What we know:
This protein is an all-alpha fold. The chain has helices at residues 6-18, 22-42, 47-51, 54-59, 63-76, 81-88, 91-97, 99-104.
Amino acid sequence: LDPTKPDYWYALGRTRVLLGDKSGAKKAYKRELELCEADAKKDVKDIGAQLSQVRPLVLLNRADDARKLIEKTARANPTNAELKQLIDRKELDALLADPKIQEAMVK
């Protein structure tokens, strides 16, 4: 485990949710988001780095921000087929409807 990696904080947040520690989970998800934001700032053209922010935004119950991020990234990359599919397939909506994700979300 590497605390400099977003996945570390995601796993810690999930574990804390399972233990009933929503406050601790929120702190972990916020740290995950901070690391993802830092990665995204390092390379604004890296679509994967930009979209890595979606998961912690969703888990922090910030679906509107996640949607705006996807739309902004799509506007900046209008020819990217993966982004178009992500939007056309409403993958964010599917993620939000996933019971496991709903269980992991904090407010």
